[in-house]
Amino acid sequence: MSEVLANGARKGVRRATTLRVRDFIVLVSCFTAVLILLLVTGSIGLIEAIVALIAAGAVAAAYYVGSATVLPASAVSDGVPASIVPSSSTASIPLKALPLPAFEIDLDERIVAFNAEAEDILRLDNRVRPRASTVIRSPALLSAIDKAIHEKIDAPLSVEVDAGPNETWRAHISRPSDIDRVLIVLEDLTPLRRAARARSDFIANASHELRTPLTALSGFIETMRGPAKDDKESWGRFLDIMAVESERMSRLISDLLSLSRIESSEQVAPRDQEDVQEIMSSGTAALEGFADERGIRLDVSGTDAPLPVIGNRDELIQVVENLISNAIKYCRKDGTVRVTYGFASDMSEARARAGQAWDDSERMTLLQSINRPGPGEPAVWVRVEDEGPGIEREHLPRLGERFYRTDQSRGGKITGTGLGLAIVKHIMAHHRGGMAVETAMGKGSAFGVWLPAMRRETGGV
Ligand SMILES: Nc1ncnc2c1ncn2[C@@H]1O[C@H](COP(=O)(O)OP(=O)(O)O)[C@@H](O)[C@H]1O
Ligand SMILES: [Mg+2]
Fold this sequence. Notes:
five-stranded antiparallel β-sheet, binds adenosine-5'-diphosphate, disordered N terminus, alpha+beta
């Protein structure tokens, strides 16, 4: 765009020079004609005529030289008013340098200069100078522009512009004194708004989840102090329920703390060398008791060789524990939870091993791993299968959202916080890994995760 503006300015200078030469010739010619007339009629003598001609020539020459500094090139360029020819010293360079979408409007309300960011957003075309009202829909912004054009504004105006259901911009409108243009700079508020909404939703959800067990606890305390004060026999039952509720509260708090810890470490990439083989052994051993309690067989098979990754041990253990405990919780009674893991020569093979093993299943990638371009990056994968009821297709995209639980598990007896998969997803993102789910109604569900591995001498599983 600056190329176009620079060419325009050069053309303007050439044309102004031509006009000045023309004026010079016309002036001298007119004066000469008058002198010849006076000379022929005998009103003046030859000497006077020559002196007058020299004087006229000097005046015309002075005009020619003087006009070069007085006349701005843009004032006469191609018949376009001076205010809409952007010169490199006013409009184009400052706008180009701005990292935000920005454009200028003249006093005729035409968009006369804009940068590439504004070009994309307003879908501008640099061959036309549209009226602001034809490309801007927001009444608030149009009226602020109108105000800046017709009134003197001392400080920049700022208006919010709704550009869609979930898109908000702030426009900063300024008109520097002594400049006949209005500058509009746009700032995208959408990510800020989205983050603020997510934060407040999160707080609302967390408070709601905490209030439920708290209400139950305080209800029982009231009952035991009041109506059931002397009914010591029912106290045992009340205390059992109170223990379950307080356990639920402490699980919720510990999940919330995990989530916040992971979020706060998100900017720092994991640095330690860890062994997924060892992590799998510790993670599964910790859940054997839980599986026994529920009559579930835990079948673990993987390589005995080390599976080195750069990772955070505590976080990876949480991934394994969350997936296996879900599988145990949702598995049918006397069923089997199968845990498999291994090494893959690249991320896409790992993804297939972790998330695509059954025919006639619904599959969904819940977190896409970022593949490095170039030669394949080795990876480690883990798959946890259960023999549960399966998960209906409509729920799949929302698994991994904080507090999301399927209707089945919300209404059922299985307790949970709805934070486990969100924690897994965050941790896998922190490790540049991926996460997928595969499910078949009546058969079961399988959750798979994979992450980049360090190269090792011996390949294969
Ligand atoms: N293995 C599974 N089988 C069936 N449903 C599952 C399984 N794992 C997770 N889900 C569904 O996903 C939801 C979210 O899981 P999660 O975040 O771990 O929360 P929680 O286990 O605390 O309910 C669960 O409530 C359940 O509805
Ligand atoms: Mg869970």
